[in-house]
UniProtKB/TrEMBL annotation:
Signal peptide: none
Keyword Transcription regulation among record annotations: yes
Protein name per the record: Transcriptional regulator LacI/GalR-like sensor domain-containing protein
Originating organism: Planobispora takensis
InterPro entries listed in its UniProt record: LacI/GalR-like_sensor (IPR046335), Peripla_BP_I (IPR028082)
Transport listed as a keyword: no
Alphabetized UniProt keyword annotations: DNA-binding, Transcription, Transcription regulation
Amino acid sequence: MVGFDDSPLIAFTDPPLTTVRKPIGAMASAAVETLLEEINGAPGKHVELMFQPELVVRRSTGSGPLVNR
């Protein structure tokens, strides 16, 4: 099982939940920078920003069963 957003309490569930963590700091910085540009009179630009999430592996996931070949 895998969650999304990595709430601070998720690491304390039983078993601890594997999750996808968003780069909140980078996303907030980009939003503030864009807002300040518009406040300062820069024309609004239509861009798509892509941010790299992080997979935080905990005990809710694991390797599959070993298969004899």
